[in-house]
Amino acid sequence: MQDALKAVENRTPTHELVFRKLRAQLMHGEALPGQAMTIRGIAEEFDVSMTPAREAVRRLVAEGALPPSPSGRVTAPVLSNERIEELAALRALLEPELASRALPRAHGALIDRMAEINRQLGLVLEGGDAVGYVRLNLEFHRNLYLRAQAPAMLALVETVWLQLGPSMRELYSDRRRGDVTASHDKIISALRAGDEPGLRVAVRADVTSGLRMLRI
Questions:
Q1: Where are the beta strands (DSSP E) in the chain?
Q2: Is the dihedral of CA 187, 188, 191, 193 positive or negative?
Q3: Total-model pTM
Q4: How far, in Å, CA of 16 to CA of 153, rounded?
Q5: Residue 81's pLDDT is what?
Q6: Is the confidence at residue 133, as pLDDT, over 80?
Q7: Model confidence at 128, in pLDDT bands (50, 70, 90)?
């Protein structure tokens, strides 16, 4: 498997690899709000030239993950209350719909996998791994939403996750967020019961309750 992954990487343009890795870092909260980054620093981190680093930043600015900057220095976004409310509203609209569309294809093995991810969430929270917590939380939701077979809608949701990533790191580093696993338990219960209205309610509550804590 590792050899196959390396083969894929070898066929992927450098700028695309840098973009994917930097995008994942932002989405998983590896950068804190306001953290400065430079094209040179990104190039050194990934051991590439300035050109692919600059292209990766350009694409991330276009996605709204990074604010535009005329210089070679960018910062992870610091979200205003209004922006948080807007992104929370998008999650509340899109994610229950994705979950609803996924429900007919949410077989037992998928639900068991989500339950295992939720168990791992509790462990990384106890260990204080904020980045791992954000990553697993998104993996929990993505596993379900992939079953919706709605790639355009999922792409929109991932753009929202990307913009929220640095701020979510701050949220999930707070030990009070242990109640996220309980919120996920409600999603899992609704899936097992085939309860579509209950699933919508559980997903909407899960994706909006935490974001309220981010408001200044």
A1: 36-38, 73-75
A2: negative
A3: 0.86
A4: 22
A5: 86
A6: yes
A7: confident
